[in-house]
UniProtKB/TrEMBL annotation:
Superkingdom assignment: Bacteria
Name this protein carries in UniProt: Large ribosomal subunit protein bL21
Keywords associated with the record: Ribonucleoprotein, Ribosomal protein, RNA-binding, rRNA-binding
Function: This protein binds to 23S rRNA in the presence of protein L20.
SUPFAM superfamilies xref list: L21p-like
Alphabetized InterPro entries for the sequence: bL21-like, bL21-like_sf, Ribosomal_bL21, Ribosomal_bL21_CS
Leader sequence residues: none
Amino acid sequence: MYAVIKTGGKQYKVAAGETIKVELLSADVGAEVVLDQVLALGNGAELKVGAPLVAGASVKATVVSHGKHDKVRIFKMRRRKHYKKSQGHRQNFTELQINSVNG
């Protein structure tokens, strides 16, 4: 069984036993979180789509760790104008271990 969940403005397809990295959540390491914004539930060829959410569906996950992604380099330049700008960004994430998909 799998589910399509929404968290942090993004959508993820998850199944029990998977590990995913999502936008930073305010939960301690080892804590269990319940993701209740389930957009779709699937089981083999069967698919249940919500409008916009599936009623009564939830995904339980455990927080494994918090961290930062690799650095993304931003470089801007205008030719012949003596303008160069270099910048970097590292996005925070929370790693989740999916325990169960409840529908």
